[in-house]
């Protein structure tokens, strides 16, 4: 984000025409690999809506502090307008997120 990789973010590709989404989690360098079903990697070819959100830390059942606020702006997750076309075969799809 703002030129820096985001680690431990969930990246979700949902087919625009409906169907099962594919998900992946970013590593330290911001790279991710999508999983379609358990051991099946990738995403179905076609147009997808993309959501990127930080995975909330597990604070236990007894935690009573403030609720987790995702540092990734809503325009990339809950209100995402991001779309990408997945082609048949290997794809490399990078996202340049900005806080503002």
Write a structural description.
By secondary structure, the protein is mostly beta strands. The chain has a domain at 9-55 and 67-86. The protein is 0% helix and 29% strand. A hairpin with a 2-residue loop joins β3 (35-37) and β4. The chain is globular. It comes from Blastopirellula marina. This is Carboxypeptidase regulatory-like domain-containing protein. Residues 1-27 are annotated as: Disordered.
- Count of DSSP strands: 6
Distance between the termini: 10 Å
Q: Strand share of the residues?
A: 25-35%
Shape: globular
Query: Please, what is the average pLDDT?
Result: 87
The total of helices stands at 0
Quaternary class: single chain
Strand order of the largest sheet: 2-1-5-6
Poorly predicted parts: none
Order of helices and strands: EEEEEE
Biggest sheet descriptor: 4 strands, antiparallel
Radius of gyration: 14 Å
Helix content: under 10%
- The structure class reads mainly beta
Protein name: Carboxypeptidase regulatory-like domain-containing protein
Organism: Blastopirellula marina
Region (Disordered): 1-27
Task: Give a short synopsis of this structure.
This protein has 100 residues and is an all-beta fold. The chain is built from no helices and 6 strands. The strands form 2 sheets. A 4-stranded antiparallel beta sheet has the order 2-1-5-6, with no helix packed on it. It has a two-stranded antiparallel sheet with strand order 3-4.
